[in-house]
Amino acid sequence: FFSRARPMSKWNDHQAVRPGSVHTTTFGDQADQGFHGSVMDELNAELEAEIVAVKGGKPMSYRDDTSRPLQDLYSGSPTRSSPKRTRAIGERSPGLSPREAPRKERKPLVVGHGSSATILQPSAEPIKGEYVERDGEAWYAIRGFDQMPPFFMSVVSDSNFWMFISSVGALTCGRVDANSSVFPYYTVDKIHDSAHLTGPLTVLRVTTRDDGKTFLWEPFVKHPPAYCVHRTIYKNMLGNRLEFEEVNDDLQLTFSYSWGFSEKFGLVRKCKVTNLRKSPVEINIVDGLQNIIPAKTNMWLQDFMANLVDAYKWNEIVGPGIGLFCLFAGMSDRAEAVESLFATTVWQSGLNDPKYLLSVNQIGNFKKGLKIDDEELIRGQRGAFLTNSEFVLQPESDHTWMTVCEVGQTHASIAELEITLARNMHKQLSELVDASMAEADANMKRIMGAADALQCTGDSLTVMHHYANVMFNVMRGGIFIDNYNVEKADLCAFIEKRNTLGSEEWSKWLSGFPDTIDYTLLIEKARAQEDGNLTRLCLEYVPVTFSRRHGDPSRPWNKFSIVLKDANGNKKLNYQGNWRDIFQNWEALCMSYPNFIDSMIAKFVNATTIDGYNPYVVNKDQGINWECPEPGAAFANLGYWGDHQIIYLLKFLELSNQFHPGRLEKYLNQEIFSYANVPYDYLPWEKIIEDSKNTISFNDEKNEKIEFLVKHMGTDGKLVLDATNKVYLVTLCEKLLVPILAKASNMVVDGGIWLNTQRPEWNDANNAIVGNGLSMVTLYYMRRYTQFMIRLFTPLGQQRMLVSEDVAQWMQRVLAVLKQNEEALGGTVGDKLRRQILDLLGESASAYRWKVYKNGFGGKVEVCAAQVVELMEVLQKYCEHSINANQTDTGLFHAYNILVLGHDDAKVEYLYEMLEGQVSVLSSNFVTGDRAVQVFEKLFRSTMYRRDQRTFMLYPDRQLKGFMDKNVVPVEQCKSSAVRAVLEKGHKSILYKDCKGVVRWASDLCNARDLKAAVAKIGSINNYLEDLLALYEATFNHRAFTGRSGTMFGFEGLGCIYWHMVSKLLLASQELLYTAVEAGQSDAQMNLCRIYYDVRGGIGFNKSPDVYGAFPCDPYSHTPKHAGAQQPGMTGQVKEEVITRWGELGLRVEQGRICFKPRLLRASEFLRVKGTFEYVTLQGEITKMDVLPQQLAFTYCQVPVLFKMGKGYHIQIQSITGNLSFDGNSLPEEVSADVFARRGVITKVEVEIPEDDLI
Prior knowledge:
Layout: H1 8-16, H2 38-55, H3 70-73, E1 110-111, E2 118-119, E3 128-134, E4 137-143, E5 152-155, E6 161-166, E7 171-175, H4 188-193, E8 199-208, E9 214-217, E10 229-236, E11 242-248, E12 253-262, E13 266-275, E14 281-292, H5 299-304, H6 306-312, E15 313-318, E16 322-327, E17 343-349, E18 355-357, H7 363-367, E19 377-379, E20 383-393, E21 398-409, H8 411-423, H9 426-449, E22 455-456, H10 460-477, E23 479-480, E24 485-487, H11 488-498, H12 500-510, E25 516-518, H13 519-528, H14 532-540, E26 544-545, E27 576-578, H15 579-589, H16 597-606, E28 617-619, E29 623-625, H17 643-659, H18 663-667, E30 680-682, H19 685-690, E31 696-698, H20 700-713, H21 732-744, E32 747-748, E33 752-754, E34 773-775, H22 776-793, E35 800-804, H23 805-820, H24 831-855, E36 860-864, H25 865-885, E37 896-901, E38 906-910, H26 915-922, H27 929-941, E39 945-946, E40 951-952, H28 977-984, E41 991-993, E42 999-1001, H29 1008-1018, H30 1025-1036, E43 1057-1058, H31 1059-1079, H32 1082-1097, H33 1105-1108, E44 1116-1119, E45 1126-1128, H34 1133-1145, E46 1147-1150, ...
Parallel strand pairs: 51-54
Antiparallel strand pairs: 1-2, 3-4, 4-10, 5-6, 6-7, 8-9, 8-14, 10-11, 11-12, 12-13, 13-21, 14-20, 15-16, 15-19, 16-17, 17-21, 18-20, 22-50, 23-26, 24-25, 27-28, 28-29, 30-31, 32-33, 33-34, 34-37, 35-36, 37-38, 39-40, 41-42, 43-44, 44-45, 46-47, 48-49, 50-51, 52-53, 52-54
Helix pairs in contact: 10-15, 10-34, 11-12, 13-14, 14-16, 15-17, 15-34, 16-17, 17-22, 21-23, 22-25, 22-26, 23-24, 23-25, 26-31, 27-32, 29-30, 31-32, 31-34
């Protein structure tokens, strides 16, 4: 595998056949595709054996569940072996290619009778995905996309435009948010169902000059066409254009339309019809858009009051063909007039002598060849903007036109549009729109280029996929708009919103700065003021833009808002998101902006509570937000999420040490950090033991006080304050201790961290294990956290740091409990001892937080770094003991367990294995080297592996009971006294016996709580309550109920692949590989390299579109078993893959130095022919650079880096002060610092890579 003598031509041949572009009969292409090692070979052998066995009518025996037929592994499928297999590879007879295999002839389908009969032409076009270049731009094409099930796409813009569109053509789009849309903002299923009802509509009557016949053609209509057609969908790499194309072989015509954006004009639909004939044709066309909604129609009205909205609709044509779509009046039942003074505008250019239709009422007549008339006004009906035009299309020529939409238009803006359209002919309008769209393209390149999205390698699909990952990461996390330059005006506004009491003094200080301030200088100057709150605010200021929450019609519960400008049209800096989402995207972003790592750490720790948890939402101006009670709302809840704190915070800390060694140590004893004051009371320990599912009480009094403080002092009023109403400040040492102490205080030895804060962890579909669940996932990450803390604090020796006295006491209590029971780790920890340890730890946290709740923090004391190390070392031992105890007989590890509390003991019951458990244990820095390789081997053999997608589900799919098999009281329990008493007394609200004699629970009893209420209502059977509850549990086994994860079959449900978790696995394998490199473990390095590409091979961009179910280069959230990829775009997957891409290129940062260690770089990534690398300079200029054969190029911190294939490591640095050349694979620390600082000092880095180090 690591052969150094492999010739370049071999890699060229390999590059020509990418995994996913050609169907093969095996699950792997030697080292590059499919299973790891022998697993791949064994399964391929079984596949061929099974085909032979089935065709010969012989039974087939299977080695284990991994190789059983896929249908048998599907939930609800028969358990017998099925002779028909569903596989990604496509079965065929041995020795025959798919085209050679005999096929049964199909009889043609006919519509009509006699002379009017039409033979339908079902498309036999194979589905094919490929990278193409069109007009010098990179696109991905899916040919035959109409043969795939409908899939959903996101088309993005450089401004506040948004678009979500189905492959059937139906869509929703608009500006800012869903309340400003052109078409209804429905859920994804309704959009798929809206084909030819919402969005584009095109009908052509085509008359041929050859025979004078007129043909009716409706491009993209889903029903079997009467013509032989070929359909292709294209998406450009920038992600802001989408094009549909239909080629009609019978009519020898092509029709295509594309979507794009123009900040000046609006959403642009460009159309083209092309005559492929040698003779002219006459075209009579109706083209345009339908189901256009009025301006300012919010989501609620669109979805729940659509028919009432219709009654208010006013659709009219004004001026030179401008369609206006508005509500004639505001919708209200109040006794007051409400004017509606906004309209959506639609206009077209390019179809001459037009007739305009404002509804679809005449489309039927047009299809029949009848005359249609202009529509100038349509009231009380769905709006449409359709243009009828006739023209002659000369041989081998085309005709183009465009339709443009804009939302939220006023009388003033419509008047300006009338003048613009009246003064310009189609050619001039087209040029104006094209210029605006070209500027949008350039802006997209500048935005994404600033985050190092642009690359030039021999692997075009990897380049496109990396761009898409960066793009969606930036869309959620935001982008810094001017390197490290901070706008003073925005900083002053930020400080004033955060703290009005101190803003006047701080604004005076800021007045001495220029309008644009260097961020690094700002922090230095603020710290010199020795004002902790000033430093805190400056450090927490994160000046990003372009951020929005990850909402779309496939996740309508998330509401997005793209706010890039303020009310005056000025640029607005902002970010918004769930705290557990925004920080993961910032982790990838700070790889390109490493000098902002400190700000991200500050924002993270300043949002943690005194309990050691985080609120739900973080944003720029409001700081933090939390969930409030919503009685009766099934999807609303209070509580704290747990696992993300440890690993996400840790990743920033690790990055700080890599980029800026020694900087964290300086913050450890600086009181410049704060606590979030969330109005949740985490109940005392005895209450948690009593009812572990209800542990958080909303403190209304505190919430009201916080609202008062925010009104009078700014959003700093949401933070913990001291006695003088100033923000209570603590050191970084304290902020790093509190989260790990919170987790340690809920540790169940051998079980995990008790989930008793009313919220699940990363996979919130496991919502039902809250209260009785134990997270090994968090414990695995804790092990890595303790290792980091030991390395951070050990060199400090006896150095002392300030912490709150209450935190110090909490730390000492936890340390004492762990030390006291440390000897038990040498053997088996019994249930009683486990309970004793749990109670002592839990009581220590309870005592701490309730003292602070009631009295606030006491004084400050000093703790010694050695004490912190002592705590981390003993806690690490507990973690490692529990990790070893959670490795199963299969070689895999548990993710979550169940806690069963008795009177004085604590038992641990184990759930099935989950992918999340393997990812987190492989990220713990404890399971490494050969042991990690073994875990991967077992994982590939497990029932979590989906062979059809060559990747992993979140958990094994499993057989579930059918409806009639559910709710059956076990026969052996039917003779119990409790059952007999209930049945004899006829209490059918509890139990009944059906006509077949089966004893069942009443259908209204959904859980034990309902059963308790029903028994209490009857009263006379109260003495049987405990027996009935036990019987109910025996029937339904709710104790092992994990939540939505075990009851749904999409999203994070059964049979589903969650691509974020797969990408986490990819990152874990890469981290383990580089760990093996540093440790000199050559065998493990070789195996982990192969494993890495096995995991990577299952990710979408390595697949064909029909296997992936969508555009392969685009990230999607999940793939259920019954469908293709779902939920496009802003998934957590992108963060991990941005980071792994740097690892693939071998770019590492160690001790402040940029190093090049390409242990995963393929020789096939180097160009075979000369190419051009387009990138964005630090000054925002779009620049091109030649890249020769055996070279590749990318940017890092926007500095262009050129790799050359050579004999040894050699680096050439170009800078504004001169050039530098030397042997080696790392940049000097001062040069690296210049790159990190993005000052423009370093202009180019060229690195010669030894060919022997490539794979």
